[in-house]
Amino acid sequence: SATSRDRLRIAIQKSGRLAEPARALLASCGLSWRESRDRLFCYGETLPIDLLLVRDDDIPGLIADGVCDLGIVGRNVLGEQDGERRNGGREPAFREWRALGFGACRLALAVPESWDWQGVSQLAGKRIATSYPALLSQWLAEQGIAADVVLLSGSVEIAPRLGQADAICDLVSSGATLSANQLKPVETLLQSEAVLAGPAAEFDAVRGELAQLLLRRLDGALRIRHSKLLLFQAPRRLLPALLPLLPDAEVPTVMQLDGEDDLALQALCHGAVTWQRLEDLKRAGARGLMVLPVEGMLA
Ligand code: ATP
Ligand code: MG
């Protein structure tokens, strides 16, 4: 049974937008796997942490049922299924543990381009097609709007042209699909990205420790994802002009160079270190600028 397992099991998408980045993130936490023949189950080699490769829609349910301990899934899917459980009078069974910084998109309300959009009151009495009925209904209730929710499992964007609905509520990233269907986004219901989902309840001791270990590594991996170590030298008197150019850096380590007014600095930058920034620093008096990748970090 789920309670007697001494290995941690993580559900990720088998194929699709989140599949590769999810695996890559877990691999960057030092996990590796031996794949089974059917490629549905990957046995953890470096740690007792296994993967189950599934449809993304199945991930919240697998956590709720205790078949998996953790999962990587879009906030949109997690939120929808959480809303569905609430509407059914059931207890929350899973929750977002960490935002993972990939798979960004938003759940948006879109209307025909021909509409002169004045505000949400225009939706009263209208039919809205969506695959996210719980999130849409909850949002409509918050707005105090009574509208008909038309549930479609796919191709939501063509519903207005087919006369099935007046507006839609769907995932948007670039907006290209919307404009190809003469629709325009007018409201954002949810900002989404891939998240690490876990149970609402506590783990037992063994899996709790494994989960904590994984979270510590994950937090390190997420922190350094865009981080770079910046090394340079500069005269001490120029520091007040240089430090404001490093607003995203942790307090730099400053080393005094022997017998001179020169300092050697080392700063961990969490934002992008572009050529432009390096040129700005050079202009402000930095010398010997060097940018190094950060491979690992443990706070
Ligand atoms: P599965 O076969 O696993 O059910 P799917 O077709 O439901 O796959 P994908 O299209 O791979 O799922 O999308 C997975 C997740 O990627 C979405 O739930 C969402 O969180 C995120 N995502 C990011 N950008 C977009 C986008 N433009 N359209 C749809 N989903 C997006
Ligand atoms: Mg799916």
From TrEMBL:
Residues 55-217 form the ATP phosphoribosyltransferase catalytic domain. This is ATP phosphoribosyltransferase. It comes from Lysobacter koreensis. It is found in: Cytoplasm. Residues 226-295 form the Histidine biosynthesis HisG C-terminal domain. GO terms for molecular function: ATP phosphoribosyltransferase activity. Catalyzes the condensation of ATP and 5-phosphoribose 1-diphosphate to form N'-(5'-phosphoribosyl)-ATP (PR-ATP). Has a crucial role in the pathway because the rate of histidine biosynthesis seems to be controlled primarily by regulation of HisG enzymatic activity. It catalyses: 1-(5-phospho-beta-D-ribosyl)-ATP + diphosphate = 5-phospho-alpha-D-ribose 1-diphosphate + ATP. SUPFAM superfamilies: GlnB-like, Periplasmic binding protein-like II. Its main location: cytoplasm. Feedback inhibited by histidine.
